[in-house]
Amino acid sequence: MSHDSVPRYTPGMDFRELGYVRVVACSPEVAIAFPERNAERIAAEYEAACGKHAALVLFPELSVTGYTCEDLFASSPLLAANRRALAQLARSTAGRGTVMVVGAPWWLADGRLVNCAFVLADGRVCGAVPKTALPNHGEFYEKRWFASGAGVNEAVGDAELGQFIVTARQLFSIGLDSSNEHSSIDCVRFALEVCEDLWAPQATGAAAALAGADLVLNPSASNELVAKADYRRDLIRMASATRICGYLYASSGPSESTKDVVFGGHLVAAENGQIIGESTRFDLGGARLAVDFDVEKLRHDRARNQTFAAAPRPSDYRVTHTLADPPALQSLGRVYARQPFVPDDEQELDARAQEILAIQATGLARRQGSAPIETLVIGVSGGLDSTLAFLVSLDALAQQHLPAERLHAITMPGPGTSTHTLESVRALAGATGVTLREIPIAAAVAQHLSDLGHDREAHDVVFENAQARERTQVLFDYANKVKGLVVGTGDLSELALGWCTFNADHMAGYSVNAGVPKTLISYLVRWYAHHRASENLAAVLERVLATPISPELLPPGDDDAISQRTEMLIGPYELHDFFLHHYVRNGSSPEKIYRIAVPTFAGAYDAGTIKRWLSVFFSRFFSQQFKRTTLPPGPKVGSVSLSPRGDWRMPDEASAEALIRTIDLLAD
Predict the structure, then answer these.
(1) pTM for the whole thing?
(2) Residue 550 lies in a domain
(3) Count of the separate structural domains present in the chain
(4) Which of 210, 316, 573, 623 is the most exposed place for a label (fewest CB within 10 A)?
(5) Residue 150 near residue 132 (C-beta atoms within 8 A)
């Protein structure tokens, strides 16, 4: 979030209990070689950050003196003023609970001058991390003034500043006084790497992350060049991804000397490969950025990543200080997307759609080529899922330079089929030139129910599942007849909820939609209509998009309207996809999902509605695992997959009782 974002307030809630920690990066106006003035400005920014309940406040490299002091760094008056300013800033943290990180030079006992990041808290200096990689090329001449901090390990006992360690091999811990018995986070560990240490071939922050740092903070002085901001942003993003950490970066601003270079005051925050906050640049009045890192999510991601777990750990890192508890966090500045599976940016949407369709089509084409399969067989219903699978099947054939005639589309109208969807199916086939075969199943279902001795007027689960299984039997038997592969149409959201009939639409030769959630299915069909479809096909796709989601297993109403609407029975898919993403991808608890869902869906669903469907989600997600245990193959297209052979394995007998009890106790 930006510095001026309006936090979302929840009375009585402390978001620290859910694993969040608020950090602020500032790049204030600097007075070159005037530590006293800089200390005043830093203290004012720190005070403002305390008012925002920040746990950490980060300032740029050498922010106490200014980065561009050049030969003045060797002057005794500047170093003496720097020491006084550090002491003044340390005192300003007394009783505040918010940690300050500032950049300043430090004179080692052996006479070397090092460029350090100082950690100030509880009214004292808690530690100093010296810069290891010193740029001395192009516009940089740091070796003229500073020595590398590599190997430095000095214990300082200073009458004014106190006792602390100067070494790059240290972590700091912020205690979280959480009263929530369900919270898994009792502290947040952070490390520092200074500017060039990130750009070096062996970045110091990587070792710190392996030693246990959840967050890496970087006080920097990175000047602006054409396209350098893009490179810097990518570097920060990928550092957070490879280390599975939160990364906060604060660079010097335009009030530094512009004799030969210009600094932009770039502030960036990234979390495991995602930029979650960024400032504007070139603001003469200074820049500031506040973000809420999700440490619980980061630890979940680390626990799931065996490459990270197997990496050798450094043995010489240690937590040198456990700092005071930060202020309670009664607001959450972080904004979550209502549809986390669907990108917000139009260009990204376009690229993502093409890539997903390519993954699906390629997977199906490879599957078809792995055996003597001459045709693709698909059941089309006039709904979203089968329509997307139909389009993917055409792409798979085109990829193999095979004619569309190799796709055998079958529609099987039954007791629940409406005229609207049947007409949609016919129009879809007509717009694509695919021959459609209609095989009514009403008589077969009636005979089957009669054989079972079941009342055909009892529209219960037997009545519904008999139709689903009859259709699947027809598809597989027809595929045998034409040497075909049955293309599955069910999607990821339905698999999460178990909204499929076991050994019916649950089965296929290859399920192309198995990794695509319902909210993304809608987007892909709409994208296809706008970017790839002919005018006639686009009209059909828009008709499908406007059709209520339904399995059509109950007879239509008197006006032939669809009587069975899925989202009225199991809840809105946009809510379930939100729950699915945050539970499976982020490892979030039901309480955490609820707390972030309420503000995210404000104006669309009230808290009671969200709570109701959250309970349904967990109840169905656990009770329907037996269907996911026996899934047919299908391609993974995103970070969330429920394949039992790869991403998601859980016992069929696991109970959701404890989670449901937690949801029941949540206050609306």
Answers:
(1) 0.91
(2) yes
(3) 2
(4) 316
(5) yes
